[in-house]
Design a protein that fits this description.
Blueprint: E1 3-7, E2 14-18, E3 23-26, E4 33-36, E5 54-58, H1 62-81, H2 85-105, E6 108-112, E7 118-120, H3 132-149
Antiparallel strand pairs: 1-2, 1-7, 3-4, 5-6, 6-7
Length: 150
């Protein structure tokens, strides 16, 4: 099932919509309407803003990853302080193994540089990982738009 998670283009309220069939989306906060067309199996452009520059990333909650890392480091420091070297290595290597398994199992999301819409359920072939220079160009574009609004 293909879906997109995106901020409302007008008020930035988080939203999501299915892309399996054409549908009309309406923001619950500002009543902004958006026509979403069904997308082909391979995603050529962003379904929200039509931007052609997209990148792929792991569809994984980064907050969970950071909590996992902090807990593993804290536990390993405690066991190391208690001279339990076996448990220290077990915690560190076990966490690394668990992280590797998650990395292999979790799929990719295709993200739009311009509107930050996350497209899920699409093949990631043909899309490159995040490129800092492109991301910075769109960040500067957003800053200029915010300055123009004021």
């Amino acid at each position: 099932m293909a879906k997109v998670v995106f901020p409302c283009p007008v008020c930035d309220v988080p939203a999501q919509a299915s892309l399996d069939a054409p549908n009309d989306w309406q923001c619950s906060a500002c009543d902004h309407r958006l026509r979403l067309d069904a997308t082909p199996p391979k995603l050529p452009c962003c379904a929200i803003c039509g931007n052609l520059e997209l990148y792929k990333r792991k569809d994984f909650p980064h907050g969970f990853g950071m909590v996992l890392l902090v807990v593993a480091c804290t536990l390993s420091l405690v066991t190391y302080g208690l001279y339990q070297k076996f448990w220290t290595w077990f915690i560190l290597l076990g966490t690394a193994l668990f992280d590797g398994v998650l990395f292999a199992l979790v799929g990719d999301a295709i993200v739009c540089y311009r509107c930050n819409a996350h497209h899920k359920g699409f093949p990631s072939e043909g899309h490159e990982p995040f490129e800092l220079t492109i991301g910075e160009r769109y960040r500067q574009e957003r800053l200029r738009k915010e300055q123009f609004r004021k």
